[in-house]
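tokens incoming
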């Protein structure tokens, strides 16, 4: 059984695609090597939100699982997005039995390939049965996953999650008490909500992961132990500095690093396309392609191609901020 404990800066790995939008295994390995070289990430999350998780089909989840687990074996832990297949189109919900069966099968596959943990979004694709609430659906779903695997389970609440499926104080306590449910990533910048959730699980063997990097400092103040956001790939060194300085009691230094992080979020035009291009420029070739998506959570990444001017401008900002943390 994996003893993985989520901590630090977890890379939400961007997906490499070929021109025909199939998965590009070589490009994926190049991208993993590029991020790994920063020596700032504690783990790598494949089939992530910014990796366009809602565009994957069943076989592709297995494909990236194999690619990442084999390539990073002995180098870094891999956590795999193992939720069932759905494009977040609410007009075409999946069959709940099929969706849950896929989640179980993909979780077992990730475990067999050597994944340190599996990640599941809160199951907004499944509607309550008669007499059930959304919280009942969530608990039933994670009980099913828990019964199927021995590796830790991480829960993911993406941005734009349907409100009835968002975790509450009561629900997070119940989830945290499940033996294999290990952590939750909540994509929010709401410091009040963060405090309510971290307060609810205080003293439990359960990790709160800041899912909005601009709120990482606020999360650390409330007990967060890890972060996943675009900067976890773009500028992991700076996010690591936020946590390292905070842990050392250097509050001003942690705030400075948080401000650099925020600036890089505010200045970014298309962080996924930027980083693929930047990796290529630095000797780790990754094609620039991305898929169209129905996703309400990540539809914002259907952006125009990054202009040369935007690339050059953001590169200068990134390298200026990174230079402060070397």
């Amino acid at each position: 059984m994996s003893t993985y404990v989520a901590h630090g800066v977890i890379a939400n790995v961007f997906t490499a695609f070929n021109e025909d939008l199939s998965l590009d295994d070589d490009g994926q390995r190049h991208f993993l090597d590029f991020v790994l070289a920063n020596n700032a990430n504690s783990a790598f999350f494949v089939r992530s939100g910014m990796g366009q998780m809602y565009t994957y089909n069943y076989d592709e989840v297995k494909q990236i699982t194999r690619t990442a687990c084999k390539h990073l074996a002995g180098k870094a832990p891999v956590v795999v997005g193992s939720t069932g297949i759905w494009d977040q189109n609410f007009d075409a919900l999946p069959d709940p039995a099929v969706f849950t069966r896929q989640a179980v099968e993909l979780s077992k596959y990730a475990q067999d390939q050597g994944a340190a943990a599996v990640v599941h979004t809160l199951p907004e694709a499944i509607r309550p049965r008669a007499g059930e609430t959304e919280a009942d659906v969530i608990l039933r779903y994670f009980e099913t996953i828990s019964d199927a695997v021995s590796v830790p389970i991480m829960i993911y609440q993406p941005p734009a999650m349907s409100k009835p499926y968002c975790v509450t104080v009561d629900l997070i306590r119940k989830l945290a008490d499940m033996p294999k449910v290990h952590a939750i990533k909540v994509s929010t910048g709401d410091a009040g909500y963060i405090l309510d959730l971290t307060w609810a699980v205080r003293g439990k063997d359960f990790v709160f992961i800041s899912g909005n990097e601009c709120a990482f400092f606020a999360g650390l103040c409330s007990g967060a132990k890890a972060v996943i956001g675009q900067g976890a790939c773009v500028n992991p060194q700076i996010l690591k500095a936020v946590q390292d300085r905070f842990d050392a009691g250097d509050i001003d230094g942690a705030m400075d690093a948080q401000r650099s992080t925020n600036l890089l979020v505010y200045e970014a035009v298309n962080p996924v396309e930027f980083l693929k291009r930047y990796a290529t420029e630095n000797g780790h070739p990754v094609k620039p392609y991305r898929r169209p998506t129905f996703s309400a959570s990540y539809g914002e990444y259907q952006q125009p191609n990054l202009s040369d001017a935007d690339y050059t401008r953001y590169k200068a900002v990134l390298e200026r901020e990174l230079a402060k943390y070397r």
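note: Residues 96-112 form the longest helix (17 residues).
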